[in-house]
Amino acid sequence: MPDADASPLAPTRSDAPARPYVVFEDGREGGRALLFDEPEEIIVAREPSEVRDAFARMEAATTRGLYLAGYASYELGYALEPKFWTQATPRSRTPLLLFGAFKSPKPWTLPTAEGPAPNIPLTPAWTEKEYAERFRACIDYIFAGDVYQINLTFPLYGRYEGDPLALYCGLRKRQPVAYGGVAALGDETVVSLSPEVFFEAHGRHIRARPMKGTAQRGFMPTEDMARAQYLVEDEKSRAENLMIVDLLRNDLSRLAEVGSVKVTDLFTIQTYPTLHQMTSGIEARLRDDVTLADLFTGLFPCGSVTGAPKIRAMEIIRDLECAARGVYCGSLGLIAPDGDIRFNVAIRTLTLFPDNELVCNVGSAVVADSRAAQEYEECLIKARFLTGTPTSD
């Protein structure tokens, strides 16, 4: 690990835990963080043929009273869906599944970030023109009746030298989140500042809260309030959100007791330092026979990052996007031996590789009345948690 003076972006930290480790923060409870370190076992699946055994090992670990903490990459969804088993699918640079099995987490206080949050320059993989070409293909699929919505994403590339936990602590000053954390279980390190829960299960009760619909923050309070109100009333954003609510209701219904799936609220606005987002709530009661493998097979990946219908959207994403998504649009989470589970949707999530390469993906939902320039701008707005400055300037 380089010295503090080796990078202008952020210092290394002497109080960072030794690898391998996972840190999860629950921003809803005053920044409570949990540290998982010194794993009893590392469970990994790099190939689709290894996934079933990995889930079996995860179930066995919880039966032994161990906690699981780690991540699933977006491409796990292709490995779980039989339709894709005979088709070529993107190969992720990160494992499909990577979890540590730990005796217990430790309550942990996140180190205080030293100095301002880092601003990391990023280079988009697509220019606006290149994005527009893929966008037009999405619109063609929509008007042909293949799909109602496609979540089109692309990577941005940068460099970072320093401790990933210091980067996380710096970035959370700019954008506090409810479902953040750092997973340092393999060669790569995942830093997630996700505001979106994928699902939480307490006993047999499960809830999901999809996030779809974005508006940039205003500079003055009146402008900011007007933009939030516009998002509430925007027919396009409401349609995007409702499509994903229906998709997740359908996914949960295959795992839930009959009649237990309920929508708790629709089109609720959550505000973050750089943007407003629209969310909705869904809950259900799981059947007693649902296993961990069943849960992921039925729900993964989250519909808010694919489009609808999910499987056809995933086929189009596979064909149009320029690289595997990796952990982005996958999920970071933890599983307790008592059955409590919490996973985020890995948006606002970046991956650091051993050669100091940083990959940060962004995306947006394309529907029939979307406009390419607006969607591209929305994607770049979502990268401001890392760049720190308006990316359209």
UniProtKB/TrEMBL annotation:
Residues 128-382 form the Chorismate-utilising enzyme C-terminal domain. The keyword Transmembrane does not apply. It holds the Pfam family Chorismate_bind. InterPro entries: ADC_synth_comp_1, ADC_synthase, Anth_synth_I-like, Chorismate_C. Keywords: Aminotransferase, Transferase. GO terms for molecular function: 4-amino-4-deoxychorismate synthase activity. The keyword Isomerase does not apply. One of its GO terms (biological process) is L-tryptophan biosynthetic process. Its EC number is 2.6.1.85. NCBIfam families: pabB, PRK07508.1. This is Aminodeoxychorismate synthase component I. It comes from Methylocystis parvus. The lineage of its organism: Bacteria, Pseudomonadati, Pseudomonadota, Alphaproteobacteria, Hyphomicrobiales.
